[in-house]
Amino acid sequence: MNSVYLHWFISFALFYGVSSGDPGTDNLLDSEVCFADGFAFGVATASYQIEGAWNVSGKSESIWDRYTHEHPERIFDHNTGDVACGSYYKVKEDVQLMTQLGLSFYRFSMSWPRILPNGLSNYVNEDGIRYYKELLAELRRNHITPVVTMYHWDLPQCLQDLGGWTNPIMAEYFADYARVLLDNFGEQVKIWITFNEPVSFCEGGYGGEDAPGGKSSGFEDYMCGHNVLRAHGMVYRMFDQEYRKKYGGHMGITISFSWLEPATTSLEDRKAAETARQFNFGWFANPIFSKTGDYPPIMRTVIDTNSKRQGFPRSRLPYFTPQEVKMMRGAYDFLGLNHYTTYLVQQGTRKIRNQPSYEDDVNVKIHQKDDWPKTNSSWLRVVPWGFRKALNYVRLNYRNPKVLVTENGVSFEPGLRDTKRVNYIDAYLRSLHAAVYKDGCTVIGYTYWSLMDNFEWTRGFSERFGLYEVDYSSPNLTRTPRLSAKYFTNVAKTGCLPNNFADYTYSRD
Ligand code: NOJ
Q1: Is there an atom of ligand 1 within 6 Å of 197 CB?
Q2: For an engineered disulfide with 398, which of 7, 97, 276, 289 has Cβ 3.0 to 4.6 Å away?
Q3: CA pair distance 22, 26, nearest whole angstrom
Q4: To test ligand 1's pocket by mutation, which of 48, 111, 197 has the most ligand atoms within 8 angstroms of CB?
Q5: Rg (Cα) of the chain, in Å, rounded?
Q6: What is the structure's pLDDT at 353?
Q7: Are 411 and 344 in contact (CB under 8 A)?
Q8: pLDDT digit string (tens) for 262-280?
């Protein structure tokens, strides 16, 4: 598809859906499989993971700057994102990579501390605005539609000093920041994502190993989630009421959904899998995408009961006001879905301890099968069928919303002949194809994570997800296309998955 039409197609798809086009052939394994016209292909990155220039041109410190500088021991290879892929200085070069891939869209995030060094909107850093304007202009020149994430984990440190996402005022501050983005970029950006993977940065950041490094699972993670949901609702309503008529456009949120399959067919394991889905995906999906709104009933009941048993005078999961429930319910034009892998779930055996935790509340055991192919990330095994199940779960439980797959990808060892990555993408795309054209899921596009190798959070540079390999030891941070780049170019340009893999030395074993 000619990428010049992509924005129009995405708009069209968002309003009318694209699942009913000519899907090509039905036989998914042996023949050519095509996506309908209008199905878009893109790649994703995030500011902290690629930009570098951490203290340049007025940018202030983010929680990831602070965390990597003060706790190198918590980063696998003791690295930081200070330089990362140097994308701050490589606007033209990076957009060229996308052009070579023949992509319709590029999903990237804007850095809050680069735009508002104080975290607050009383001072806007013009150099930050200039940088993103330059990137947007370059994308436009190359007919690539921008898909912009407002928050991909790099909170200004000065706001973390006020408690970060555990502080209810953050919802207002986020709305102020969002207003600055909409005022400055609303004309060029028509597809907005408020947050990327809130479970990851709330659970990981306030109860786990990620920045800012809070160790308050079962407490601050829920506070974070509560304020992020309120912030999303506020920004969506603001966009809807004030900006849509001015600029048009669409807004959603990206939620990660690993498929959670019962380990056995027993009633206990089936219940455990559903509980796990509700605590994971439902935590953020239910308040926004369900008919009733609010937290999933199972989360409400379990956390209220556990809190009481632990002697707390109130639930560790805060309550929304009826107005807030209403504000969040239906606050989307599309769902951004990140999907990488699948887990098997069994009933847990945890006791309610005085020291609460998210894990104790969920109370399930999860694992992956030994014979599922491994990757270079310990949490990620190759399980393509889970993608179709996850998409169908969304279709059946959340009234078949329009879904943009905002991330799917895999890490493997360095090297250009990445046939395993080709294999992964191809298998996951076949699963996605079946979900759309056999089952009726409304998916409007697919985003590969990531355009190039980048800073993989606490794993540093040790896990590589890129279609382009980045040579971190070269002064230029040279990007070189892998075999998977060639494969993905073919897919993006033709809209079809090839049935002849000779070019990719593909093996189905
Ligand atoms: C999820 C995150 O959004 C992204 O930042 C990360 O690099 C990928 N998944 C791979 O782990």
Answers
A1: yes
A2: 289
A3: 11
A4: 197
A5: 22
A6: 84
A7: no
A8: 999 999 999 999 999 999 9
Q: Find the helix packing angle between 267-277 and 297-309, rounded to 10°.
A: 90
**What is residue 19's predicted lDDT score, i.e. its pLDDT?**
40
Show which residues are catalytic: 407
Cα–Cα distance measured from residue 332 to residue 394, given in angstroms and rounded to the nearest whole number: 14
CA distance 476 to 116: 29
Q: Tell me whether strands 403-408 and 364-367 are parallel, antiparallel or unpaired.
A: unpaired
The strand pairing partners of 496, in sequence order, are: 34
Decide: 360 in ligand 1 pocket, CB within 6 A.
no
* Rounded average pLDDT over 22-32: 46
pLDDT at 22: 36
Instruction: List pLDDT tens digits, range 129-169.
Output: 999 999 999 999 999 999 999 999 999 999 999 999 999 99
Q: Which of ligand 1's atoms lies nearest the C-alpha of 456?
A: 7
Cβ contacts of 472 within 8 Å, gap of 6 or more? 453, 461
How far away, in angstroms, is 380 Cα from ligand 1 center?
11
- Our answer on whether the CB atom of 449 is closer than 6 Å to any ligand 1 atom is yes
Give the pLDDT confidence score for residue 28 in this predicted structure: 44
Q: Ligand 1, closest atom to CA 459? A: 11
Span from the CA of 32 to the centroid of ligand 1 (angstroms): 30
